[in-house]
Amino acid sequence: MSKPPGAVAGVIQATLAKDLRLEWRSKDAINSMLFFSLLVVVVFSFSFDPNAEESRQIAGGLVWVAFLFAAVVALGQTWARELRNQVLDAYRVSPAPANSLFLAKALGNFIFVAILELLMTPLFIMFYKLRALGPAWQLIPIAALGTWAIVVNGTFFAAMSLRTRSREIMLPLLLFPVCIPALLAMVNATTAILTGELSAKFWIVLLTTYDVVFTIACLLLFELVLHAE
Amino acid sequence: MKRQAEGDECRHENSMKRAFPIFAVLTAVLLSYALYEALVAAPTEQTMGNVQRIFYYHVPSAWTAFLLFFINFVCSIQYLVRRDKVADSIANWVAIVLGVAACAAAVVIRPLPSGVEPSSVATTGLAITGLYFLVKRYFSGSRTDALALVTAEVGVVFCTVVLVTGPLWARPVWGIWWTWDVRLTSTLVLWLIYISYLMLRRFSASGQTPVLAAALAIFGALDVPLVYFSIWIFRTQHPQPVIGGGGSIDPRMLHVLLINWLAFLCFAALICWSRYRLEVLQREVEEIHAMKGLQDPRSSG
Asked: Rounded to whole angstroms, how far apart are CA atoms B179 and B184?
């Protein structure tokens, strides 16, 4: 299968634009994610009612667990949307490279989850009285790397769970165990910055390694999963 | 030619069938001897007392489980790369290079991390290469997948034994059931990943299961080292490995430990063997049913 140069970028652009337009018109994923993480924030805040010092210790874990759970909502819809009208089968028989489809979907999910994080962060700060004692700007690369870690594996496992019965249940069952090291790094990095006691450098390096390793693994294996018969 | 090959396979299967009960009896004898050694013959540990004897089940189960998961990983890689000639030869070379690199590292790198013997580095490297080519030589196509399924199932059982016996020992000795230490955490993550592996196999449509499961196994194999190294920087509470890890062990205890490991390995091999035979037969029956259905659609029901 010969791929003309630029085909990869072209397919990524077209698919991404289509997904963004669909989301802009329906707002399915964003709305459900937003409401879901809002519920998590309210329920946790209500059941703990922490003071500023306590919330510095627990907020890192809370924030990322909320985003992880909310991301699963969006990730589940990534491929399910393509099942209607046999769009996915059309992708499968088309000569478009499979990896560009995967990258487009992962980038789309990254944008959705990033928007969610931007909208939810003020709420978290408000409810948990957060103020970072460490270098707060480092939270931006941590958030970007962490979101990519969730999204790249999530997009892959969503494609995988598409092939199973009861796929809504399968996605978190597959995703969460593999996400453990990334979650550990995100939570520890965030806590380190909020409390200002330790350096987050090690965790950022770990998160970068995780992203590189799993992005490569996803790109190598996605075509097999898409065409699995 | 084909008929001769089939005859060979038949004879081979028959001799395997005859060997099975002999191996089963041997395993039973070995297991009871190991039980006697662990509970009666082994010396009582000075500070921990009899609680320490759980060590003779905990450690061999852990080694067996890790070995089984490793075989699962090798099978998964082989199942995927065999569909593509280039990938297959790349994987072969990687396996060879790994073995050579381990031997070279054992000779060249000085000093090795404390407690790691050069011979153990070389042996591990060569074992990886050897295992890879053994699986390649004796298992083909869907048989690789059957072996992957079997090793994952039995591995989960042994891993569960590890996770149950660990806290039983830790409670009286450490005073706590569980701690997020490097070995405990990575074993737990390994166990979780293989549970999700078995779930995936159960829930996916039969034709696609092998590919999806093999991909997940590779993700798991990438994941566990990351967990291990990320917790490595925390102070670890688990006792140092007693063999090749700087710890010290009474030679009589080592003897009992190795006997137990041998017994557990034989036991695992026995279960894997019978489960593998069952799995292969089951697949043959399904294939025959499918063929019959194709020939006469009405009879398939």
From this structure: 7
